[in-house]
Amino acid sequence: MPEDRIAGATDAGVAAGPAGPAGAAPAAVRLRTPRERARAQTVADIIRLGREHLALHGAAALSLRAVARDLGVVSSAVYRYVESREELLTLLLIDAYNELGDAVDAAVGAVPEEDFGGRFAALGGAVRDWALREPSRYALLFGSPVPGYQAPAERTTGPGTRVITALIGILDGAFRAGRLAATGRRGPAMAAGLAGDLAKIRAEFGLAVPDDLLARGTLAWTSLFGAVSFEVFGQYGPGTFTAREELFGHHLAVLADVAGLPAAGTAR
Question: DSSP string covering the chain, please?
Answer without folding.
Answer: -HHHHHHHHHHTTTTT-TTSPTT-S-HHHH--SHHHHHHHHHHHHHHHHHHHHHHHH-GGG--HHHHHHHHTS-HHHHTTTS--HHHHHHHHHHHHHHHHHHHHHHHHHTS-TT-HHHHHHHHHHHHHHHHHH-HHHHHHHHSSPPTT----HHHHHHHHTHHHHHHHHHHHHHHHTT-----SSPPPPPPHHHHHHHHHHHHHHT----HHHHHHHHHHHHHHHHHHHHHHTTTT-SSS-S-HHHHHHHHHHHHHHHHTPPPTT---
